[in-house]
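Design job #97: recover the sequence.
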């Protein structure tokens, strides 16, 4: 199974890497040929008009392709676009031979329009194919392939220019597009259930409801505007210094080759550490930060070498750190929202930034025909500052999208994949794939019906004076009730416990009845009725090691009837108990209490410390299970069930603790997703956890998540298992020696 899973990931990754190599090779080679041919036939001052025309056509093209991507999916449309682009390159070679000026303009517009669309579409295929967690691991390899393609494209352009005419490069570009089309078609369609989009919403409707995508669009717009200003200044300085078309193409080819090599080195060496240490938003923010510094230098000392340096670092970071982080930001966005908007952001906002940049260039050329390059670089620095502001907002939005993808997606779960009995019962009730709202409603309904009676509050609390004075008649009744409770006669005990409410002074006599199966139900019901008035006594009994284990195990369900921080604090203290079953029950009760009372709060540091302690305590149990499993092939079914059950509930308990300071609904869905057969759902859950958990918890928890998918075979409830095996035991800790002695001998 593991081998099959690796193959399922490796084949699409290899195809995507090869596609990235061919795609970026034709992109870089196309830029070198386009720039050299255009500047050989037109002056540099014609570039802003060409940029505006290309941007207008790109916006028209993206409106068409975004609807096609939404309806049919990028994995069907993108290979077709690659084939069309390749055919156009070959056709433009012949057009340039007949009508050079028209052919060069056609090439410029074609490269600008199709280049952005195929790159956006290619990455859409990638981030729909892989879930957020898997994408983080494979994106580096694919992006490295892209940077390698940049190197190959630059080298190919330089070699073609040195041996023949620049336009011959168009045949090479056509072939590379055909290779990219074949590779992308091998990536395959995404396997998630949530990919099919029957009625795609309009892009503007999605933008209106998703601030996250709006911030992403603003980042792309200002980055593109900054890039356009820098790129124009760079090309104008180069055209002024180099006049020959062949020399210009070799210069641009050498520039793209060197930046491609540096991009490859940066991509392979620093992308993963940057994503790990800086996060996605921090990794993206490196581009505007570096442009701020290098742009200030270029604006102060505008020379060919300073502009070359600025354009180089901008190109290197755009195609390495920025691209890797940027594409990952889309992975948690639902396909219904991603498909109509991604192309608009990738291409439309990019071209909008180009138009803004070109408009500023034309305006400044009209105002001051000479000496505008330092001013343009100063404006570029301002654009980088705006891009930085919006980039820093993306981290919170990314986590929110991960949570939303878990909350809002229809989740199909098999009964064997869930851990808690409540969810199993909910699934039995619905008998179909359930969405989040329906599932949570069923859970709430089951919880409210789990007790024999509703949680009735006690009558008004008697005054302190009334408590301190016991009349003779009251004393007789009280003593009679005490005798009945201590009699051992179930009828007499039940008669006292059925009084509503029971006298609060009888709590010390009622508590031992929780340990007896015959009287536990009426005792529990009576204590829950008066729990808010006697919460201090209940907590004291829970935290007292001298209280019988079975009583302490059942007390959290009583304290759960209380509201307020006092009861919650007592239950939280029980999370440090030596006995796992007490900790587990206290955690469940505390979780229910917090769901009901949103005013309860705990410091995040305390919650994380408690989760770390639980993981450390349970480490011995995990090791014991592995040791027994390795040493004995024929484990007693009963012991095997106990250990498996303990492993499952240990993990569930850790998630319950974490839900005290993190989003409870999302954590519950994440836990169920980890036991799902849907790899995209598991990957989304892992990615969410990786972003919200502190490193110390991740280090302890991550190894356990791999072992957590062991299927529990025992049809009995865990209460029955615990009652059968540990009624008379003094410790919930598993004694390996005793377990091994009880194994069947061969």
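Job complete. Output follows.
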């Amino acid at each position: 199974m593991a081998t099959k899973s690796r193959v399922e990931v490796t084949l699409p990754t290899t195809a995507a890497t090869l596609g990235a190599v061919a795609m970026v090779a034709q992109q870089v080679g196309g830029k070198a040929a386009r720039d050299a041919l255009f500047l050989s036939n037109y002056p540099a001052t014609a570039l802003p008009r060409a940029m505006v025309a290309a941007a207008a056509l790109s916006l028209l093209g993206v409106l068409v392709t975004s609807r096609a991507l939404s309806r049919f999916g990028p994995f069907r449309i993108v290979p077709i676009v690659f084939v069309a682009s390749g055919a156009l390159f070959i056709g433009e070679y012949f057009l340039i031979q007949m009508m050079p000026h028209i052919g060069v303009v056609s090439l410029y517009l074609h490269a600008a329009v199709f280049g952005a669309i195929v790159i956006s579409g290619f990455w859409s295929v990638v981030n729909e194919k892989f879930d957020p967690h898997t994408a983080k691991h494979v994106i580096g390899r694919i992006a490295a392939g892209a940077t390698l393609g940049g190197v190959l494209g630059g080298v190919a352009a330089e070699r073609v220019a040195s041996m023949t005419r620049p336009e011959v490069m168009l045949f090479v570009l056509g072939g590379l597009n055909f290779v990219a089309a074949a590779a992308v078609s091998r990536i395959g369609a995404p396997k998630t259930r949530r990919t099919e989009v029957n009625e795609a919403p309009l892009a503007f409707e999605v933008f209106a409801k998703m601030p996250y995508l709006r911030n992403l669009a603003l980042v792309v717009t200002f980055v593109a505007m900054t890039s356009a200003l820098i790129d124009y200044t760079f090309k104008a300085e180069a055209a002024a210094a180099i006049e020959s078309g062949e020399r210009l193409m070799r210069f641009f080819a050498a520039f793209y080759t060197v930046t491609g090599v540096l991009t490859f080195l940066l991509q392979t060496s620093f992308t993963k550490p940057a994503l790990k240490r800086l996060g996605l938003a921090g990794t993206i923010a490196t581009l505007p930060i570096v442009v701020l510094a290098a742009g200030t230098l270029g604006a102060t000392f505008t020379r060919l070498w300073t502009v070359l340096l600025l354009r180089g670092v901008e190109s290197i970071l755009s195609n390495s750190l920025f691209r890797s982080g940027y594409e990952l930001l889309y992975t948690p966005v639902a396909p219904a929202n991603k498909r109509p908007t991604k192309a608009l952001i990738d291409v439309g906002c990019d071209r909008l930034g180009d138009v803004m940049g070109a408009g500023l260039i034309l305006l400044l050329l009209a105002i001051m025909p000479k000496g505008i390059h330092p001013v343009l670089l100063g404006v570029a620095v301002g654009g980088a500052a705006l891009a930085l502001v919006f980039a820093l907002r993306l981290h919170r939005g990314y986590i929110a999208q991960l949570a939303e993808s878990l909350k809002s997606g229809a989740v199909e779960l098999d009964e064997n994949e869930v851990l808690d009995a409540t969810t199993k019962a909910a699934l039995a009730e619905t008998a179909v794939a359930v969405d989040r709202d329906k599932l949570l409603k069923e859970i709430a309904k089951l919880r409210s019906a789990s007790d024999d009676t509703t949680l009735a509050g006690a009558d008004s609390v008697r005054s302190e004076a009334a408590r301190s004075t016991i009349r003779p008649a009251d004393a007789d009744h009280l003593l009679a009730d005490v005798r009945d409770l201590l009699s051992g006669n179930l009828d007499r005990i039940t008669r006292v416990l059925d009084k509503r409410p029971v006298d609060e002074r009888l709590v010390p006599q009622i508590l031992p009845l929780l340990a007896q199966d015959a009287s536990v139900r009426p005792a529990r019901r009576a204590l829950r009725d008066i729990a808010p008035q006697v919460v201090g006594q209940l907590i004291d009994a829970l935290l007292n090691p001298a209280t019988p284990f079975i009583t302490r195990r059942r007390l959290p369900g009583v304290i759960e009837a209380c509201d307020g921080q006092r009861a919650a604090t007592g239950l939280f203290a029980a999370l440090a108990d030596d006995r796992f079953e007490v900790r587990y029950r206290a955690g469940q009760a505390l979780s229910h209490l917090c769901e009901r009372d949103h005013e309860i709060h705990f410091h995040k540091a305390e919650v994380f410390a408690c989760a770390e302690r639980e993981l450390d305590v349970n480490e011995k149990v995990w090791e014991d299970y592995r040791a027994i499993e390795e040493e004995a092939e024929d484990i007693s079914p009963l012991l095997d069930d106990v250990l498996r059950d303990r492993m499952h509930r240990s993990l569930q308990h850790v998630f319950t603790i974490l839900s005290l300071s993190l989003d409870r609904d999302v954590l519950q869905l994440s836990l169920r997703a980890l036991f799902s057969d849907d790899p995209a759902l598991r990957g989304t859950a892992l990615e969410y956890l990786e972003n919200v958990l502190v490193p110390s918890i991740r280090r302890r928890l991550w190894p356990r998540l791999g072992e957590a998918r062991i299927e529990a075979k025992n049809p009995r409830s865990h209460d029955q298992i615990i009652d059968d095996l540990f009624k008379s035991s003094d410790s919930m800790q598993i004694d390996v020696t005793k377990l091994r002695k009880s194994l069947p001998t061969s």
